[in-house]
Every structure is written in C-alpha cells, then in structure tokens.
Amino acid sequence: MTPALMQQGNLLLQLYIQPKASRDQIVGLHGEEIKIAITAPPVDGKANAHLTKYLSKAFKVPKGDIEILKGQMGRHKQVKIVAPKLIPDAIQHLL
Predict the structure, then answer these.
(1) Greater confidence, 65 or 95?
(2) Residue 66 has what pLDDT?
(3) Torsion angle, CA of 28/25/87/7, rounded to 10 degrees?
(4) Cβ density class 27-41: b for 16+ within 10 Å, e for less
(5) By the 8 A CB rule, do 47 and 59 touch?
(6) Which of 3, 37, 43, 75 has the smallest C-beta neighbourhood within 10 Å, fewest atoms?
(7) CA 52/CA 59 separation, integer angstroms
(8) pLDDT digits 0-9 by tens, 61-93
C-alpha cells in the first residue's frame, strides 16, 4: 500500500510516529510510511490526541474528521482524514 492515498474524497495515510520529538513536523518517508514527529509522550493516549490535533491543523479539518483506523497503541498507524481542505506539500507529492 502507498503511504498516502485519496479514496472517495478522503485521505488515507500510513504513518510512523516519533513521539517526544523536539517539534511537531512531517519528516518525510520512512520506508513505506510517512514519518511524523510529535512532541507529546506516548503515555495514556496523549500522543494520539496530539497527533489528531496536529493533523487537524495541517489538513484544515475538524479533529472529529481524523480517525485512527489502525495502530492505536503503536508507532505504526493508519489514519483517515475526511475531506481534507488542504494537503501539505510533504504529503501532496506522494499522491
């Protein structure tokens, strides 16, 4: 599967998450996944909540339009973004 895929107006992303980073950013490709660094620690769902908030800002959608389909407890995640209003350049070139 590709790291980024548009499907019926929604965006499916295969992500590799690096928690406790110095800043939030889309790093680039990490094998078959998109690496995203976030500042939150992987404790009590904090990283998932932070990731959702970061992605909602990056793609200009409400937090409710971001769904973690797979990988709730791990670094490897599959995320669905419903009808993104904006696609960051780092993701755009993968489509």
Answers:
(1) 65
(2) 98
(3) 60
(4) eeebeebbbbbbebe
(5) no
(6) 43
(7) 10
(8) 999 999 999 999 999 999 999 999 999 999 999
